[in-house]
Amino acid sequence: MLFYIALASIFTAAVLYPIVAYFKDEKGLRKYPAPSIAAFTPLWQMYHNWKGLKFLAVDRVHRELGDVVRLGPNHVSFSSPRSFRDIYGHGTSIIKDTFYDNQAGGNPNMADATNKATHREKRKNLAFVFSPKQITATEPRVMRIVEKLVRDIKIKAQGGMVSDTDRFPVKDGVFDLRPWLNMFSYDAITDIFWSQSYGFLDRGNDDCMAEAADGTLRKVSAMHTFHTNTGFSVLVGHLSPFWFDLVKNKLLAWTFASKSGPYFTGMARHLATQRLRNPPKEPDLFSNLPTHSSEKRPVPMSRDEILAESSVMLNAGNDTTQSALTNTMYDLALNASKQHRLRDELRRHLDTDQLPIASYEALQHVPYLRAVIDESFRLHPPLGTGVPRLTTEPTVIDGKLIPPGVTVSAQAWSLHRREDLFRDAESWIPERWLPDGDDFSDEERRNLKDYVQPFSQGPRACIGRNLAYMELSICIAALVLAFEWTLPHQGAKLRHHERFNCNPVELPIRARALL
Ligand code: HEM
Fold this sequence. Notes:
Layout: H1 2-24, H2 43-51, H3 54-65, E1 68-72, E2 75-78, H4 81-88, E3 95-96, H5 98-104, H6 116-127, H7 132-137, H8 139-157, E4 175-176, H9 177-194, H10 200-203, E5 207-211, E6 217-221, H11 222-237, H12 241-251, H13 256-277, H14 303-316, H15 319-334, H16 336-349, H17 360-363, H18 367-379, E7 389-390, E8 395-397, E9 400-402, E10 407-410, H19 412-415, H20 442-451, H21 465-482, E11 483-486, E12 496-498, E13 502-504, E14 508-513
Helix pairs in contact: 2-11, 8-9, 8-21, 9-15, 11-13, 13-14, 15-18, 15-21
The chain binds protoporphyrin IX containing FE.
Protoporphyrin IX containing FE (HEM) is lined by residues 110-111, 123, 189, 312-313, 316-317, 320-321, 324, 382-383, 387, 454-456, 460, 462-464, 467-468.
Cofactor: heme
Region (Disordered): 277-300
Keywords: Heme, Iron, Metal-binding, Monooxygenase, Oxidoreductase
């Protein structure tokens, strides 16, 4: 009997209710076209999330059905340039969607706090941590880790192993650069933030410790744990909080997919507890957190807050940086003439004692380097997907009146590839970013400034932008000065698998040492 009641409930919730809701159309969303079953159920989005290619599916839907489409029963996606500012810009009443509440699991961090006042408070706490002065102070740490990466790639270029524990071998002169760039981004953020560098580049693998709330330690693979967690959380994140909790924390609680979330939190917990136990001699970014009471902040951050913010730093500080590095190195390997131009310009601007690892200050005098990085951001934004927001009152988005309580989004992947904004938009052309790039109009340069949004915009824009540019500039310049990069098959495509970020799957490559 219980079985039949359960079956009837599932049928009502999954089939009957969506059909009735569609025809009742209380929010007036039926006028917007939708692909296949998307207007009835979140399953359309979940299917494309599961395949890891939702950003391409959404891009295709906009090209076929227009600038405003319905991606779910309560989700409207926009693709016009104007809609980005209307959704993400300053001065709107739009907030982050319940999708983020699902991710927060009751202990929100700065990135997933949906309440505006809570977010403002958290952002205030971290604004000083990410001030230009503090970021500049981390530069020697970044340079040291880049040095290790260059050392490892030299070994890889000769077909060797970094150590006995190296898990990423070379085959016929070809190796996958992606995990090395991810190990770099992990080593860098753990050093910069907690002075507890993971040391992945020394060992050639990504094993690290996760600490449970009761102090139990477990060895986990950082990359696999993080990617499993984000892939799974995004897949079920479209469900209502009730279904999300039921599926993730109860029905599938026994799976690694479900446990990977607590394991990743455990990685952050271990870093934070180690850092609190062993304060470093040199200040790191953690030193700027209000962990002790002061005149300005009499009540210091609680342990839960420290854990929540540590978790978001480990998350945001590793994966987007890795994706941006991998995308850029692919673009350079595919476009040999541009790679040579970048190397020539770097050699022309830098003193010999700055080769191959130069200061960020020196690199800012090489406009072609920034053009290369920005053009890769345009063509493959690490966060390609339309991050979901929620209307809290009737809101006009690109001329359409959207009622309160509707999920809205617009994706950078599609915006960055609009032919009406960028000439030859599907091609990777760093020259379009140069102030004197004769082939491109002033209007296109304005469009680049206004509509290339890899770090989003408005009050929830990336707080780590300056750190990201510093890491990318020092790392890419060193890799291009120290090695010549070629793809094993000219014209080989770079595949992406989208979780929350749009991750490159692998980058098989050859490196020839130049120094
Ligand atoms: C290439 C590198 C990076 C890219 C492309 C990037 C991109 C983004 C984007 C698009 C968002 C908005 C996400 C949303 O609305 O859900 C964001 C938010 C955020 N990013 Fe980054 N990010 C990068 C690096 C970093 C780094 C290195 C850190 C810090 C270690 C960081 C910390 C954050 C935080 C804390 C937020 C949340 C901000 C808030 O809600 O107020 N990011 N990032």
